[in-house]
Amino acid sequence: MKILIVDDQASARIVLASIVMKLPDCEIVEAASLAEARTILENQAIEVALVDLRLTADARNRDGLTLVELIRNQTTAVPIIVTASQEMAEIRMAMRVGAYDYILKDDLCDELVLPVLAGIRSRRRLEREVRELRARRPAVEPEAARLVGISPPMEVLRETIRRVALSDRPVLVTGPTGTGKELVVSAIHTLGPHPDEPLLDLNCSAIPEALMESQLFGHERGAFTGADRRQEGTFALVRQGTLFFDEVAELPPSLQAKLLRVLETGRFRAVGAAAEQRFAGRVVAATHADLAERVRAGRFREDLYYRLNVLTVRVPALADRPEDIPALVAHFCRGQHRALRFSSAALDAMERASWPGNVRQLRNLVDRLAVFADDDLVTPEVVSAFLGEPTGAPVDAGLGGTPGLRAAAQTVLRLPLDNKLEAIEEALVAEAMSLAEGNKSAAARLLGVHRKAVSRRVEAPGTGPISEAGQDPGPNSGDLPALDGNGRS
């Protein structure tokens, strides 16, 4: 730490220097005037400045205050006033212009000066660490920002990620398919102690068993037919980073035993190698399967399950956090080539949908709307057509729970058997038209039939079952195209 001592009296500088030099790893620079101090500050990186309040014999001199203000405005040094005056007005003035602390010349001793300097040194060290962490933050924030949502389940998920990221123990990420387990794994890695090290993933369901051992452990030249050169495996390549086993439930039994040994010993051996190597990374596994059930069925090793299940992160299904759907929709819309707008009713309808494909299904829906929707404004009818399920009315209410149908049901029950089906269909059509406010296309979507079937029943009651509406192409073939899972009409 480089310390500047500024005092017009040489004897005072000598006393201060004799005390300061007892601080380890300390370099002292001296100045006798404001001008000398300015020159030093312009040419050297000073960390602490011990400044006399008066830098001449004139009792009215305030050059020390001028220097303190200059240090605060133009450098990163910490100024401390050293004064013979005990006037509190002068001391307060020094503190107002930026002095970190003050020391009375009558009290100069090791016990008072050294603790102040040691405290500043600790503060500067913490500031450097904060700057280093902030320099790392841009690489961390994008992954955390992709975990969209402010619902209680998402807050629990973020807090869990923050806690497990600090550990080097194995992590098991579970949750339904499409919930974003890969994003969680990436966040765990980037928020962990080694974000600059590799994050390597191994899809256990996509790599043939014959190749997976070499992929994981690597092999020596000549270890097997076709091994014409030495190859490092992911256990070695990951270094101190994260090795991600995606769909770990599909890991072959023979490799389950070998992975267990790596987790227990922290060592592995490449295929054909004589010596073992140390595994310095961490293992994170993810699956949508119930591993406990697979253990009971004898399809997954129990000891490996408990080794992986040290720290568990459960990713919530989209149905458990429907209040996050508007934020997710806005997030997915930002990456589209057109400016989609969702009405409040459309968002309400989306919050009521079931979403078996979770966030992945929601993103696919937004992608399809960006390509196939006729208008930029998305309505509940458009959502219903593209999603393939009725979302115009609350799911828990349904047609069967509406007052119109309850009244019609009491009448239908009193009719002869031959007339019951026709009366039920007429009541269904009437109630659907009421819910759709007279829109036949919307009523057809609620009923799951073609618009022509609803038109015929409305215009000519008693003309037969609504399922006999000619050669209708299907329930979603009205105003908007019906799309399959790949967005094809």
Draw up the topology in text.
Blueprint: E1 2-6, H1 10-20, E2 27-31, H2 34-43, E3 48-52, H3 63-74, E4 78-83, H4 88-96, E5 101-104, H5 110-145, H6 152-165, E6 171-174, H7 181-190, E7 199-203, H8 209-217, E8 218-219, E9 231-232, H9 234-237, E10 242-246, H10 253-265, E11 267-268, E12 277-278, E13 282-287, H11 291-296, H12 302-308, E14 311-314, H13 325-333, E15 341-342, H14 344-352, H15 358-372, E16 377-378, H16 380-387, H17 403-412, H18 417-435, H19 440-447, H20 451-459
Parallel strand pairs: 1-2, 1-3, 3-4, 4-5, 6-13, 6-14, 7-10, 10-13, 15-16
Antiparallel strand pairs: 8-9, 11-12
Helix pairs in contact: 2-3, 5-7, 6-7, 13-15, 14-16, 17-18, 18-19, 19-20
State the gist of this model.
The chain has helices at about 10-20, 35-45, 65-75, 90-95, 110-145, 150-165, 180-190, 210-215, 235, 255-265, 290-295, 300-310, 325-335, 345-350, 360-370, 380-385, 405-410, 415-435, 440-445, 450-460; strands at about 1-5, 25-30, 50, 80-85, 100-105, 170-175, 200-205, 220, 230, 240-245, 265-270, 275-280, 280-285, 310-315, 340, 375-380.
Textual characterization of the structure:
By secondary structure, this protein is an alpha/beta fold. It has 4 domains: 2-123, Response regulator (Rossmann fold, 3-Layer(aba) Sandwich), CATH 3.40.50; 152-314, P-loop containing nucleotide triphosphate hydrolases (Rossmann fold); 320-387, Orthogonal Bundle (Helicase, Ruva Protein, domain 3); 399-468, Orthogonal Bundle (Arc Repressor Mutant, subunit A). The protein is 47% helix and 12% strand. It contains 20 helices and 16 strands. The chain has helices at residues 10-20, 34-43, 63-74, 88-96, 110-145, 152-165, 181-190, 209-217, 234-237, 253-265, 291-296, 302-308, 325-333, 344-352, 358-372, 380-387, 403-412, 417-435, 440-447, 451-459; strands at residues 2-6, 27-31, 48-52, 78-83, 101-104, 171-174, 199-203, 218-219, 231-232, 242-246, 267-268, 277-278, 282-287, 311-314, 341-342, 377-378. The strands form 5 sheets. A 5-stranded parallel sheet has the order 2-1-3-4-5, sandwiched between helices. A 5-stranded parallel sheet has the order 7-10-13-6-14. Helix 4 (88-96) links the parallel strand 4 (78-83) and strand 5 (101-104). Helix 13 (325-333) crosses helix 15. It is flat and about 110 Å long.
